[in-house]
Amino acid sequence: MKHTKAKWWITLSLNKEKVVRSENRFICIFPKPNHYTDQDERYEEEMEEYEANVKLVVVAPELLEALIQLNEGFKSEWGDEDNSDRVCKNIEYWNKLASNAIKKAK
């Protein structure tokens, strides 16, 4: 994988724009939507989308890791002929992994 592997977090730039960064570098800068006169509703919708996009980008590495683990788990579990007991035991783990990733993204 070629993305920045360190933990990502949200901070503010000097211009007060939200920035996703890691220990060593900026990952992404999010310019705020413009707020024009008489366009409050549009601005509010764009701000909601802006906040959701920032959250989604900051958890992207964790989402990817969760998907990799799920994929690898499914491959290893369904590789055997009689594996239903083991699959059932791991479903709870996989469900928790996916649920946590989804919560962070939302």
Structure description:
By secondary structure, this protein is of the alpha+beta class. It folds into 2 domains: 1-58, no CATH class; 60-106. Helix content is 56%, strand content 12%. The chain has helices at 40-58, 60-77, 84-105, and strands at residues 9-12, 18-21, 26-30. A 3-stranded antiparallel β-sheet has the order 1-2-3, with helices on one face. A hairpin with a 5-residue loop joins strand 1 (9-12) and strand 2 (18-21). The longest helix is centred in the last third of the chain and has 22 residues, at 84-105. It is elongated and about 60 Å long. It starts with 8 loop residues before the first strand and ends with a helix. The relative contact order is 0.13. The model has no long low-confidence stretch (mean pLDDT 83).
Outline of the structure:
This protein is an alpha+beta fold. It contains three helices and three strands; from the N terminus they run E-E-E-H-H-H.
